Amino acid sequence: MPLGHIPVLLIEDTPSLARVYTEFLKKESYRVIAVETGAAAIEQLADGAPKVVLLDLQLPDMNGMEVLKRINAQALPCAVIVITAHGSVNAAVEAMRYGAYDFLVKPFSADRLVVTVRNAVERLRLAQMVDSLEQNLGRARYHGFIGSSLAMQAVYRIVDSAASSRATVFITGESGTGKEVCAEAIHRQSQRAAKPFIAINCGAIPKDLMESEIFGHMKGSFTGAVADREGAAARADGGTLFLDEICELAPDLQTKLLRFIQTGTFTPVGGSKLEKVDLRIVCATNRDPLHEVEEGRFREDLYYRLHVIPIHLPPLREREDDVLEIARHYLAEFTAEEKKGFTQFAPETEQALRHYHWPGNVRQLQNVVRIVSVLHDGDTVLPQMLPAPLGAPGGGVAGLIAAAPVPMATVLEAVAPPPAPLPPPLTPEAIKPLWEVEKDAIENAITACEGNIPRAAALLEISASTIYRKRLAWQAEGKL
Questions:
Q1: What are 15-74's pLDDT values in tens digits?
Q2: CA distances to 420, 426, 437 from 423, in Å
Q3: Fold identical between 3-137 and 142-314?
């Protein structure tokens, strides 16, 4: 739909007011679709097209906030302007939490309505420009990965470049960041995709069996070898061999692996015939490999043989709002599996997910969503449904009061911050427009973070795309 033809969906159950608002907007050449109920509004929103929504909170069949929550949950491309005769701070805060663009209290002038709608259309225009750039420059899904953060875009680009090569890839990253997913992505993106992908966890197999697991063995070569067995190297012929937790390999096996990488040949345990294979090796570790080399636990020559194309997977806490994208994906998946009714996370739950440091990374997040979907039900995941430590009871002042063997007044006095000095009285001359206060806060944060916009966004508790969008708007208006 052309940006200049974005319609206005007016949801107002008072016919006289609906006619007045429609006339105001038609004079400015806006196309207005007027409905009187929440159900009719939801039907109009079903096409997923961009719209400016003028939403009355008092509707005959439902509370207008339910319509707003649905728009927010489905991420519809709408700029919602809440209109109500029951204006209050609480209603405004609630509406903004669920993504409302602006808030109008009846009665309001024609100019106020027209200016607000015009700004909302401009916001949609800029949002679509940013979305278009993100579609061209970024990917939210990549093989098994989920996430559109700048850190993951860099990983996707390296995988694209590395996949076509025969060179060995060395993946590093904390536990749970998706190292095996990365190895599979390299394999699936490569010309070897039709051949086998064989994975071995070097830390999960006893050291005396590891050589047999990689290179195979002949019947009778050791106790329990009752038949010839093909190793991972032979099974991966033509494809990719993934060695996870490579730093766990015993020193003598490191020597044999080095020779295998150099020559492409090996001899099964107990065998005498030299076998040759054509495969690509990808390895990974959650340790610092150079530190392992310095400590003498990992051969330096093997390290340089393996560390040809390095890929470092960022921890989840450094991936901006990827945590929410991943959580929503698994919520939908596990809800379907468990036959539950969850459709969304409450805003407070999203805040808790966004601000937790995730030591177990994506694997931990997956487990958290799984626990919620198994133990609870409803349409919205509430903060109290989260397992410990995200939803751990007994934290903060309440936990101290419950556990303390001293009087409550003493506990409260201990945890209470010292009284802050009263600010000087505010004069009308000192008041700045809200957009200017917001711009100063964002620009100061970017300066403090030395131009790192994703880090500034994280500290401001907003997404990086919000900053890019606002700066585009300020540039268009000559305010930046």
A1: 999 999 999 999 888 999 999 999 999 999 988 888 999 998 888 999 888 999 889 888
A2: 9, 8, 18
A3: yes
